[in-house]
Every structure is written in C-alpha cells, then in structure tokens.
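Long-time lurker. I teach an intro course on protein structure, and each term I like to show students one example going from raw sequence to a predicted 3D structure in token notation. This year I'd like something fresh instead of my usual example. Would anyone be willing to generate the tokens for the chain below so I can use it in lecture? Attribution to the forum is fine with me.
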Amino acid sequence: MWRVNITCDGEAWKLNGAEFKKMAENYQGELIGSKKLPDGTRIMSYKIEDVSDAEEFQEKCANFPGFTSDFESL
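-- Reply from a regular --
Happy to contribute to a lecture. Here you go:
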C-alpha cells in the first residue's frame, strides 16, 4: 500500500485541476486526504495498492506545471 502526496498552488490548480482529475481517474486509487489552504495551495493524498501504479501516478502528477508529488509506503 502506497500514499502519493500531491501539492500545487492555487494558480496551477485553476489551470490544470480539471486535467489532473481526469488523469487521476485512470488509476485504482482512493483519495484519502484533500485540503485547500487559505493561500489557495492544495494538498492531496491518494492511496494506491501497486507500487508501479504509485510511481507512475507520482510521475504524471509532477508533469503538471506547478504540481509537486512524492510517494511513500503506508
């Protein structure tokens, strides 16, 4: 079990949020946390079973301008 953590600023979310959501639907992941900070920054966490899927999801998230991501074992 893996947790993929994604962070983006408000402007990046406005520009790429819809595309990110479409990409996330392609993975067998569960959104386990989502927070919008007062400055517009978004922090999200997804639980993904397979390490290969977690790595790929993390890499694709990082391809969106303004998004950063990492993953860790649960």
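Some talking points for your students: Strands lie at 2-8, 29-36, 42-48, 67-73. The helical segments are 10-24, 51-62.
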